[in-house]
Amino acid sequence: MTNTSFDLVDIIRTLQKKRGFILAMTLVAMLLGGIFLVVRQKKYKGVATFFVNNPLYGDRSTLFRSQDTRYVDYFGGDDDVDKIMAFANSDTVRDRVIRNCQFDKIYKLDLNDPKGHAALMSIFTKNFTIKRSEYKDVTVSYVAKEPVDAANVANMAVSVMEETYRHYYTAMKMNIYSSISEKVTQLDSSINALTDTLAGLRDKYGIYSLISPDRRNIITGDLRAGGKGYGRAIEEIQNIESIKDQLVTDRAHYISTLNEFAATTNRSMEFLKLITRALPPTSPTGASITMVLLVAACAGIGFSSIYVLLITYFRKLNSVVR
Fold first, then answer.
1. Pairing state of beta strands 272-276 and 137-144?
2. Most buried among 46, 147, 274, 305, by the most CB within 10 A?
């Protein structure tokens, strides 16, 4: 039995002998890589970067604090960034982006058709990327055939996320605002009713002095003795005035609270801070010409070398007499 050896020396000699073939295959691979660069459709990536602001900084307890001087960081924490990531992956945000950016005109699909809408949502999901870094900044990017479309979609995504994130907090504040506003309306009705009652009692008994016990228990004015029922009239006026004074005080407090909530829902308060606006890219995304040719050359050398070594080895095996 004859042992067939194919050691390192044989491999080197084989590669040297077939170097012309290996070089030719390498050039062919680089040529195919160049053709791929020419034929492939160019795509562009729009990139925008932003920070998440701390929503507590725009809260009523922070804006109008009088005693609590606790420090509140301007930048949002990891929990706030998590919420932004959740909003970015929601169908609500993606649907608004494709509608605002007119995807139906860009990709020639019917947005009102369920299949067309699903296709546009799939296109957006495939080309849209959102990433966070250890510095708590968030980067969004979108890949499109046109540079302007790529930049517009990236910027629109940030705008929609900011509006959605802000609405999450302002909606709750507006619900509170509406509840307090309804209470103010009820207080107005009660105060008007008490005012009419007090006016009738004062005109009936001729009592026009300030006799409310809620006002530091001070009675002002000139009260003179009257006829029968005069004392009861004073007590009734005192009771009704005490209730009315408390309602007026509550109403003033509610109105002040309404103003505070209205200030916290102002649109000038941004919840996302855009630090890098997406601009139309000047060069297509993907590997560069140098990288593609280098990869093609390595692939050509690798495959052609393996092919030569395998063919040579099997020929040597077949030439051995068994």
1. unpaired
2. 46
Q: Please say whether the beta carbons of 195 and 228 come within 8 A.
A: no
Integer Cα distance of 167 and 210 in angstroms? 48
* Half-sphere exposure (Cβ direction) of 155: Cα atoms closer than 13 Å: 13
Phi and psi torsions of 282, nearest 5°: -95, -15
The pLDDT assigned to 1 comes to 47
Coil, helix or strand for 256? helix
How many Å apart are CA 31 and CA 299, to the nearest integer? 12
Quick: pLDDT tens for 263-316: 888 777 788 999 999 999 888 776 667 777 788 888 888 888 888 888 877 777
Q: 257: which residues sit within 8 A by CB, 6+ positions away?
A: 180
Sign for the pseudo-dihedral over CA of 127, 128, 133, 135: positive
- Rg, the chain, Cα only: 40
pTM, 2 dp: 0.70
Q: Is 91 helix (H, G, I), strand (E, B) or coil?
A: helix
Give the C-alpha separation, 178 to 31, whole Å. 70
